[in-house]
Design goal:
Structural class: alpha/beta
Order of helices and strands: HEHEEHH
Strand content: 5-15%
Number of helices: 4
Distance between the termini: 20 Å
């Protein structure tokens, strides 16, 4: 996918919609979430993500997600490979996990 802040709305929509359709078909299920290429997002990119059928999207801006930023411009907490147990505990104890529960109603952390 091209750098989303430098392309037209039409190009961003086409790329998100086309890649979502491809993933849906290859995975045999609906793709719900998007992480913007290199984390870049503006209002038009968020609109393209929504119109492409994504339920939520994350940027690479660090921090806890909150509802005031909208569900197509969520900040995220980076979980790096080889994170220690104590490092992971630090992440969830600082409230990052609490925001995920409030936003998504989830009861588990999934690491991909």
């Amino acid at each position: 996918m091209s750098k989303s802040s430098r392309t037209s709305y039409e190009q961003r929509f086409w790329e998100m919609n086309d890649s979502k359709s491809w993933l849906d078909q290859k995975l045999g299920r609906k793709t719900k979430y998007l992480c913007y290429p290199v984390g870049r997002c503006n209002n038009q990119t968020a609109i393209a993500a929504q119109k492409s059928g994504y339920a939520r999207a994350t940027t690479t801006r660090p921090g806890s997600a909150n509802t005031g930023e909208g569900i197509y411009g969520l900040k995220r907490v980076r979980i790096v490979p080889n994170i220690s147990d104590s490092g992971f505990v630090q992440l969830i104890s600082t409230g990052c996990w609490k925001h995920a529960v409030a936003l998504f109603g989830v009861d588990r952390i999934f690491l991909l």
